[in-house]
Write a structure and sequence with these properties.
The structure holds two protein chains of two kinds. By secondary structure, chain A is α/β, with parallel strands linked by helices. Chain A has a single domain, classed as Transcription Regulator spoIIAA. Chain A contains four helices and eight strands, in the order E-E-E-E-H-E-E-H-E-H-E-H. In chain A, the strands form two sheets. Chain A has a six-stranded mixed beta sheet, sandwiched between helices. A two-stranded parallel ribbon of chain A has the order 4-6. In chain A, strand 2 and strand 3 form a beta hairpin. By secondary structure, chain B is an alpha+beta fold. Chain B has two domains: 79 residues; 149 residues, Reverse transcriptase/Diguanylate cyclase domain (Alpha-Beta Plaits, 2-Layer Sandwich). In chain B, the strands form two sheets. Chain B has a five-stranded mixed beta sheet, with helices on both faces. Chain B has a two-stranded antiparallel sheet with strand order 4-5. The radius of gyration of chain B is 36 Å and the shape is elongated. The termini of chain B are far apart.
């Protein structure tokens, strides 16, 4: 019997599945996220959750930027997420998060938070 | 007096970063999308502004490309529709042959050309007893027969000749170059013989004949209407002599050097 992996590390991110089934994604500080990175991230999420929709907390503390193709990949793979909490602590990450929500209109509930704790608390309430 | 930042490196750096963002916005305003504002590692407000400009540039580029594509698609669609409308205005819907308007235009154009050793001729073709086909087998069969007749007429044409359907079971042929009335009549009789061959329409084998009137352009028949009316009259004269006949109009006396 094989067990599902609980943590995946790729070039620009680390992703793991918490005991409460929420997936946590942390991008490498200052990285520019491309379509290839986004595809790797969605594939990793699919691997961690077995393709079942799950809550996702994205740690963008360290001001990553993302190109349009990457954003559209996250919008396209809405089947993987039940809700998304974006943790933003810099003006740059906050603006990117706000623009993503306003302009790319992700189908899953998506909100910005200042810290991990409130993000996870919100996700637990949404996905439970 | 212009302020100097020589003694304030932070202000100079800020000005440079903002200038780069402003330059990017100017490029976007000119619909140049191959530039992006630089974003530093700080993630501060200036980087946020740069990222916002880039983000909006991404969206503007996509919207602009989509709009361009939509305009191009719509233009192509309109061109296609215009061409189709033009084709429909000049062609018979059933057989695809030129209609009366286009035939008249072609004949008028041909009559403007003066050729010393040859003239042109019009054949007026009317199927004999076509109504009986419609009455016996239905209009769908009649329509299919007309399509097949049109194909056979076209197959008998020489280079430069053209055929038209002007309604019902009536067809016109423009013989672009004929050297004499007997040559025109011979072509008409050959066409009549080809139409006498059986037609396969669905499961049916149908036999039809056609009356063909022939008129040559000459000093007496020099307009489109005169020429077509003469061919029409000759066709009726042919019909009076029985089915499957061809007849030359009496004014068709054109001769070389006449």
């Amino acid at each position: 019997m094989t067990s599902e992996p609980q943590s995946i590390t790729q070039g620009k991110f680390r992703m793991w599945r918490r005991p409460d089934a929420i997936v946590h994604l942390v991008w490498v500080a200052g990285s520019h996220i491309t379509l290839e990175d986004a595809t790797q991230a969605t594939a990793a999420m699919e691997q961690l959750t077995g393709g079942q929709p799950a809550g996702l907390v994205v740690d963008a503390h360290n001001s990553s930027t993302m190109d349009r193709a990457a954003r559209m990949e996250f919008v396209r793979r809405v089947d993987l997420v039940s809700a998304v909490a974006l943790v933003v602590t810099t003006p740059l990450s906050r603006l990117m998060g706000n623009f993503f929500i306003a302009i790319n209109s992700p189908a899953a509930p998506t909100r910005l938070f200042d810290d991990d704790e409130s993000a996870i608390a919100w996700l637990q309430g949404v996905v439970s | 007096m212009t302020p100097s930042h020589d003694d304030d490196p932070a202000s100079a750096d800020l000005e440079l970063r903002l200038a780069a963002i402003a330059a990017t916005i100017e490029e976007f305003a000119q619909l140049h999308f191959d530039v992006r504002a630089p974003i530093g590692p700080r993630g501060d407000v200036v980087d946020a502004v740069a990222a916002g400009v880039n983000f909006l540039g991404d969206e503007l580029e996509v919207a602009y490309r989509e709009l361009e594509q939509r305009v191009a698609d719509r233009t192509a669609e309109l061109e296609h529709m215009t061409e189709e409308m033009r084709r429909r205005a000049l062609h018979d819907q059933l057989t695809g042959l030129p209609n009366r308007t286009l035939f008249w235009d072609r004949l008028a154009h041909r009559l403007l050309q003066e050729r010393r050793v040859e003239t042109c001729a019009v054949l007026f073709i009317d199927l004999d007893r076509f109504k009986a086909v419609n009455d016996s087998w239905g209009h769908a069969t009649g329509d299919q027969l007309l399509i097949t007749v049109a194909e056979r007429i076209v197959s008998q044409l020489r280079a430069g000749d053209s055929a038209a359907r002007i309604g019902g079971d009536e067809f016109l042929v423009l013989l672009d170059a004929v050297s004499s009335a007997p040559v025109a009549l011979e072509i008409a009789e050959r066409l009549g013989a080809s139409l006498r061959e059986p037609f396969e329409v669905g499961d049916l084998t149908l036999k039809v004949t056609a009356a063909i009137g022939v008129a040559l352009a000459s000093s007496d028949l020099c307009s489109v209407d005169e020429l077509v009316n003469a061919a029409d009259a000759a066709m009726y004269a042919a019909k009076r002599h029985g089915p499957g006949r061809s007849r030359l109009h009496e004014c068709s006396t054109w001769r070389e050097d006449a």
